[in-house]
Amino acid sequence: MPTQDSRDAASASTSPPSATTSAPATPKAAWSAVFSLTLGVFSLVMAEFLPASLLTPMAESLAISEGQAGQAVTATAILALLSGLLVTAATQRLDRRHVLLGFSVLMIIANLLVALAPHLAWLLAGRMLLGVALGGFWALSAATVMRLVPEHDVPRALSLIFTGVPIATISAAALGSYLGDLVGWRNVFLLATALSAVTLLVQAVTLPKMTPERPTPLSTLISVVRRPGIGVGIVAIVLVFCGHFALFTYVRPFLETVSGMGINGISSTLLAFGVANFVGTLVAGYLLERSLRLTLLSMPLIMGVMGWLLSTFGGIAISTDAVMIALWGFAFGAVPVAWSTWITRVVPDEAESGGGLIVASIQLAIALGAAIGGVVFGVGGVLGVCATAGTLLLAGAALVTVGVRTRARSSMDACAGVADGH
Asked: Are residue 143 and residue 42 in the same domain, yes or no?
């Protein structure tokens, strides 16, 4: 009886050319354009996470509570989810170059609105615009990469793009707080505006014209979800990201109460997590060129094991806790790259709609992860959060093993499924 891997391999070899790429093969990789997308990721993620490091001065300046200021993050996440789902249908007849440049313009306006905000309404308006740009950009990123580089370079290009995430996350936390004390939070957002303007300029120079190939109505999302293996993959994505954010949301309480670290130890451990995450993102491109399935499986497996080890042996030694959290960060670095590569392989003809589904799934997982972590934290403490996160991640790895395809289903594969009674 053929295995899942053999069926995937067979489908890869028997698929017609039109089923394995959404655009004609690019004769030469446009790496300068890929770099401009990396700069876009850095600018967007930096702007997304700046409020976390500037929450207190923002709240004091606007005469609101920190809880109200925190809604700036929530507003961004909600609009990112909606934008990721709707952007393909809403821009189906527009040149992708113009759409991506439009998102950079939105980012500039969003940062300006926040920097000049006289009250909460302006702050939320700016953050909502950023959410539109963030979700739309991520939804189109994988499909855009497929049009900029040859198929065999897609994993490496996606790996390069995702390196912007850990760099921006570390920068937002470290530079955000430092510069906020030095020049004020409004000037930090003005600096973010300047960075967004540089991003727009670089993208305007490097991004080629990318006309849409055919209309993609909203119903395309439903048809993509109904394809074999896609629904299972989406559930696996939610489980993996939910597990990650359940633990990551409460990593500081773990380090404080279980590991017994002071502020210097916590800062050093989080820095190690960020550096390891960056390295994992770089390594992901090479791993994916060798085996997409193994990468999809092994990374959440490593994270799940780390979750249970932290729950069971956490606090025995500070250095051991730090190493396990760094390994967690390394493994997670490959996760977004792997799932973005997966969507380009399983729905190459609808990679934009597939990218929107991934963005929405991740945003949902972030909200669920924080909520589940909060409930478990209240009942079983931070060690319970570690165990729960590990369980969710192992469940995601199990789904990859039993039900996630790594290639588009060809007509011959479909016929074989009918003959087998599937």
From this structure: yes
